[in-house]
Amino acid sequence: YLEYDNFWYFDKSKLHASATYDDWGVTDLVNLQKFVDNKESFLPNSVLHLRCVIQEFRHDITLPHATVIENTLFMDETFSDITFRVQNKEFKAHKIIVSNRAPLLLKKFRNSIYAKNVVDIDLFDADAFQELLRYIYTDEVQFTEDTHGEETAKMLLFITEMLQLPRLKKMCELSLISELFEENALEYLVLAEKNNAKTLKAFCMDVIVFKFSIIESTEKWYHFRDNNSDLVDAIKMSKAYQG
Fold first, then answer.
1. Within 13 Å, how many C-alpha atoms sit on residue 149's CB side?
2. What InterPro entries would the database entry show (predicted)?
3. Chain-centre distance of CA 49, in angstroms?
4. DSSP 12
């Protein structure tokens, strides 16, 4: 934190490198003894003054309309007529539901389906495929520690672009946006560009421009700059536009 007059300023760029988003500033902020020992400085007239800067980024995050779904059969082998094998894990499913909710998934593996009703998929990992099926059956997806949330969202972003699932794609974007900070903004920007994730890209650009004075001095920026000339130009244009 930075002290100035009777105010406290919390600036992550001034903190020790080991600080995290969960703990920076908190220890001093809630340390009652520090208030007591410095009452005249921090509590003039017994009043605590806090000042913070809030930067708001606004973009359209509306989810596309949901279609009718059958959520009672998710992970239920009853009447299943197709098996997906992903990373040596089997997922039983129902062709009529999958074909209705994700038609390109069956079309992509049509020959294997007609031959034996077993589909071997090596493009996805098992966690991501399970969440894909959860979405197909329930219109929901879980990005948690149990499902390796962040990595699953990244993988699903690729899957949704390939299978043309705009609603699930937006869910993935929103999940990644909730994890977006200056440390991963460049990585997420590249991911968004590769998968045509326009909402995620817009938020990444905002964070990068807002925190550019910090980001431009990192090793990640040097690597990004040398390998993504088009995105670097876009960042420069955005900086110039925002002044």
1. 13
2. BTB/POZ_dom, SKP1/BTB/POZ_sf
3. 34
4. G
**What CATH class does 180-242 carry?**
mainly alpha
Residue corresponding to tokens 């760029």: 13
For 9, the 3-state DSSP assignment is strand
Pick the CATH number of 69-178 from 3.30.70.1450, 3.40.190.10, 3.30.710.10, 2.40.30.40: 3.30.710.10
Rg, the chain, Cα only: 24
Q: Which residue has the tokens 């995105």?
A: 231
Q: What is the pLDDT of residue 144?
A: 80
Q: Determine contact, residues 8/1, Cβ cutoff 8 Å.
A: yes
> Given this model, what pLDDT does residue 12 score?
42
Domain positions in the chain: 2-46, 69-178, 180-242
Cβ–Cβ < 8 Å for 188, 200: yes
Q: How many CB atoms lie within 10 A of CB 137?
A: 21
pLDDT at 73: 76
Residue type for position 160: T
Residue type, 196: N
pLDDT averaged per 10 residues, the chain (length 243): 38 38 39 68 71 63 65 78 89 90 83 69 88 92 80 93 93 91 93 95 92 91 94 90 70
Residues in a beta bridge with 156: none
Degrees, nearest 5: CA angle 190-139-93:
100
